[in-house]
Amino acid sequence: MVQKLVQKSDLNTSTFKNVGVRYIYQFRGTYYFRYVVPKAHRNLILGAPKQFKLSLHTSSYTLAIERVAPLWRCVEAVKSSLAPDQVTVHYKKLVSELERLRYSARTSPDSSYPLLKDSWYSLLKSKNWKEKRLSTANQMFRNIEFYLGNKPVNQYSVRDLQDCLKRIATLPVRNKFPYRSMQLEEVLHLKNVPVEDYVSDKTVKEHLKLLVMLFTSYLCEEMKVLVESPAQGLKVTVKESRFGAFTDKQIKSILVTM
């Protein structure tokens, strides 16, 4: 059984994230490890390549950081070695670790799919939104993440997204007493919210648009991470209205087929 790539007990995460990112880069949605071997070391090691490059088989920044951690330790050991025999020993460890990671990263379940939260942060980096829109979008994403969880993006289905939106439709408006004095977690855990306090149909529709933007426009069409989007053909019917049954016109306003 392949050992875990990261032993968190001996890894200073904050230090590693600041240093380890020197050795990773992203190309077409996938993260890679790259280390250029110094010329002085290449002269000491027979057959040493000019650089090491390896796909980390993931679009998740967090997972890429974790996977490259053992390689980072080996690289730092090579760089800090003074004697030729020390360089050789640590170089061999680096090669061995590269071979192990080459196999484990390729065979790990969902290794090529980013987590939901990582995908959202990646999408935000591609946007130049003003502060107000960014704040609103982040608020909607927190609602979505609460109900969907933070899983690899290929694990979500149309039904997952539908159920998420149906639950969001029963959330209360935040600018109304007593909800305005509550923390987000308190609001999300509320049960039996009066129908007249539900968020508007427009709010539900905005959450749906965000899901379509993330899964269809970004992950599927732009980044090519997903072959098929779970938001494709997404239909959401909110069965209750603060004013009673929906009219046909009201239903059409929140029943969207992408």
Please describe what this structure looks like.
By secondary structure, this protein is mainly alpha-helical. It has helices spanning 13-20, 39-44, 61-80, 84-107, 116-125, 131-148, 158-168, 184-188, 201-222, 248-254, and strands at residues 24-27, 30-36, 51-55. The chain has 2 domains: 8-107, no CATH class; 116-254, no CATH class. It has 10 helices and 3 strands. A 3-stranded antiparallel beta sheet has the order 1-2-3, with helices on one face. Helix 6 crosses helix 9 and helix 7 runs antiparallel to helix 9 (201-222). The longest helix is centred in the middle third of the chain and has 24 residues, at 84-107. The radius of gyration is 24 Å and the shape is elongated. The protein starts with 12 loop residues before the first helix and ends with a helix.
